[in-house]
Each structure stands twice: as C-alpha cells, then as structure tokens.
Specification:
about 190 residues; mainly alpha; Arc Repressor Mutant, subunit A; two-stranded antiparallel ribbon; globular
Amino acid sequence: MTNERIAGTVLQLDPSFDAFVSGGSARLLRSAYLIIGDRAHAEDLLQVTLVRTARRWESAREAPDAYAYRVLMNLLKDRQRGLSRRVTEQPLGDQVATFAAAGDHVEAVSDRDALVRAMKLLPARQREVVVLRFFADLSVSETAAAIGSSQGSVKTHTSRALAKLREALADDDHDALTVRTEVPGAD
C-alpha cells in the first residue's frame, strides 16, 4: 500500500486501486467528455471521481467500474444543476467548414464535432445511456446500476437516443454537404 495526500487527507492506496486507475481512467475520461463535450471539465470530473472512489475503495473494490461510473454520473448531474443557474455561453461558430479541403484531419475533426453536437441534442439521461453502453462498453445491467435505473428504462433510452442520433447525424451530413459546396475554391 502506498500513502497519498488528497485534499489534506492521507490515504493508504491499495495496489488494486492503482491498477484500476491505470486501466479505467481513460474510459471514464472519454465517457465524461462525450457527455459534456468539454475536455477540461471532463478531466476535472475524472479527478474528483477518482478521489471519491479512492476514499471508498474498500466498498468500491468489488465493482470498481460500476462504482466509479455511478460517482461520475452523480457529479455530472450536480454539474448540470450548477450550469442551469449560469448564463449560457455561445460558441464562436462552425469554423471547420472553411478548411474542408485541408484533408483527412479536418474531416476527422468535423466528424467528431458532428458527433459531439448530436450528443448535445439528446436529453441528459439518453446521453448518459449512450455513452455508458457504447463508449464505456457497459452491459445493460451495469448501465442500469450506474445511473440508478431499471434495465427496461436503459433499453428504452438507448432506442430513443439512437433514433435521435441517426436523425441528427443524417441532417448534419446534409448540412455539411451544403456548406462544403458553398466554400469558395472547394469545387
């Protein structure tokens, strides 16, 4: 066991926690990013999730992924409540389209941007379910446990979310084609 000082508290960390962090933190970060669409906030949420999981490692050790995802989902809900009280920020605009002829990198960025925009159109619960099921690769039962819901609810949210994503991404593909044909010099 190693000693770590976290927020003024000395914790004795089990080597199994270190293994969990090494193997699971990338998945947790990716999940947080896909839900909120902001890497800096996702990293902050990951850090708090890992600290809270470390503090309760004795009980979390039995199912560390489920425990950590539950903590992450609770933090995301808290964040949404806090954001609802703030003035909303406005994006600068879609500037990727002006560089559409630059090659594969721009196309990959554009695809990622389209996916993040489509995910933001989903209600919070559907967004959580999609990320946990398809990006974190959790089963229906693990997802239900992580969000505190029934398996039937997870299936319903998954079905509705995928339908909305297909529609949003199809609309985005149509919009992207329109924008690309209007870019000077892209003919």
